Amino acid sequence: MRFYPAAERIAFFGTLVAVLVLALLPIPRLKEYGIDIGFRYDKLNHASAFAVMTFLGGLGWPDRKVRLIVFLAMVGAAIEVLQGTALIRRDLDVLDWVADCAGIACGLATAICVNWILRHRG
């Protein structure tokens, strides 16, 4: 069976753009646009966003999981640093990055299981 990961790759980049926009727009701007999505618990927002991105990336690039993990961990760290700038006026919180990494672990575990099932189903 051949596996064509193009859809997962496109979904990964679309999700990455959406996460970056939501994470880097100042809070007043989000409210101005009427954007109030997510969970009440901020850490769950971070973990779920990075779990979805890792899951899609793990399906899109099944042989490049280490690069994916490093890339997404760096994206999470960069988001936190940028959120701490005066331009964005949001909070820099190291625990948000920890939640990102927890989401990466969950998304990776799920992607590994799905990849295994896809390879072994008959």
List the helices and strands and how they pair.
Elements: H1 6-24, H2 27-32, H3 42-60, H4 65-83, H5 94-120
Helix pairs in contact: 1-3, 3-4, 3-5, 4-5
Characterise this structure.
The chain is elongated, with a radius of gyration of 16 Å. The longest helix is centred in the C-terminal third of the chain and has 27 residues, at 94-120. 74% of the residues lie in helices and 0% in strands. It is mainly α. It has one domain (6-120).
Instruction: Return the average pLDDT rounded to an integer.
Output: 89
Structural class category:
mainly alpha
Number of strands: 0
Topology order in helix (H) and strand (E) letters: HHHHH
**How many domains comprise the coordinates?**
1
Number of helices: 5
Task: Catalogue the unreliable spans.
Answer: none
Helix percentage: over 70%
> Termini distance?
9 Å
What is the 3D shape? elongated
**C-alpha Rg, in Å?**
16 Å
Please outline the major beta sheet.
none
Share of β-strand residues: under 5%
Task: Offer a few descriptive terms.
single chain; 122 residues; mainly alpha; elongated
What does this entry show, briefly?
The protein has 122 residues and is an all-alpha fold.
